[in-house]
């Protein structure tokens, strides 16, 4: 009743490997690119028409096809709603997290947009996996770590202070010691955001523990780059308490 059945059948057939050989080698990529639009047109009540096609594309041997889906999975989650997202998209999202960096960057760039759509208990499961984003296939891919820091600044609002202290704090400290200055600089902003999270939620003890850790790790660092990091953290917006620490 929404679109002609032959048109839908034609679209669904785009994942046929034979068509890639005879029509267009990138036809699967074009199919993946337009899938959120097709899903929006059909509506979530007709997602069953696209589910198998989506799963086929998500396991395509071409990383460009999987990358295309990774960049749009958050948009599809909005279209489908929380129940269908949890049932059908989360398993594919988890697969993308373990894929090549070229695919992982797609979910990383919109990590906050996807996680905020999940229920709190499901969202909390990803706290254990965020650390994996620090490790990349190519250590020189510093933009990957930069993007991680940017996303973590947004993600802070999705978790309580204890979870931030137990999981996200460690990632922030690791990124603050990155070899690339751009990554370190955005990480200093992340550190300040974490402190603000603690104090705005009256988690003063966690904030003080984190401050003491920053002092030991950076202000009293034997290397000048560590002490410089402490100065930059203060410059970004650290609390005046830092200036009084002996």
TrEMBL record:
Protein name, per record: PP4R1 phosphatase
UniProt xrefs under Gene3D superfamilies: Leucine-rich Repeat Variant
Protein origin, superkingdom: Eukaryota
Keywords: Repeat
One GO location term (cellular component): cytoplasm
MF terms (GO), sorted A to Z: protein phosphatase regulator activity
Gene: Ppp4r1_3
Signal sequence annotation: none
Keyword Repeat belongs to the record: yes
SUPFAM superfamilies: ARM repeat (SSF48371)
């Amino acid at each position: 009743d929404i679109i002609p059945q032959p048109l839908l059948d034609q679209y669904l057939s785009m994942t046929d490997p034979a068509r890639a050989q005879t029509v267009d080698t990138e036809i699967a990529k074009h199919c993946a690119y337009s899938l959120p639009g097709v899903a929006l047109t059909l509506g979530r009540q007709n997602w069953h028409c696209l589910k198998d096609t989506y799963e086929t594309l998500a396991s395509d041997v071409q990383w460009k096809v999987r990358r295309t889906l990774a960049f749009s999975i958050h948009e599809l989650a909005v279209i489908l709603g929380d129940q269908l997202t949890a049932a059908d998209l989360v398993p594919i999202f988890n697969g993308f997290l373990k894929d090549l960096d070229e695919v992982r960057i797609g979910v990383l760039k919109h990590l906050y947009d996807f996680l905020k759509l999940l229920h709190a208990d499901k969202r909390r499961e990803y706290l254990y996996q965020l650390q994996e984003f620090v490790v990349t296939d190519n250590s020189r891919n510093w933009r990957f770590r930069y993007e991680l820091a940017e996303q973590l600044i947004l993600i802070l609002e999705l978790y309580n202070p204890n979870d931030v202290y137990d999981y996200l704090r460690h990632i922030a400290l690791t990124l603050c010691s990155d070899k690339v200055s751009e990554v370190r600089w955005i990480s200093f902003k992340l550190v300040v955001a974490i402190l603000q999270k603690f104090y705005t939620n009256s988690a003063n003890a966690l904030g003080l523990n984190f401050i003491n850790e920053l002092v030991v790790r950076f202000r009293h660092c034997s290397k000048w780059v560590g002490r410089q990091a402490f100065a930059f953290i203060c410059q970004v917006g650290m609390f005046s308490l830092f200036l009084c620490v002996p």
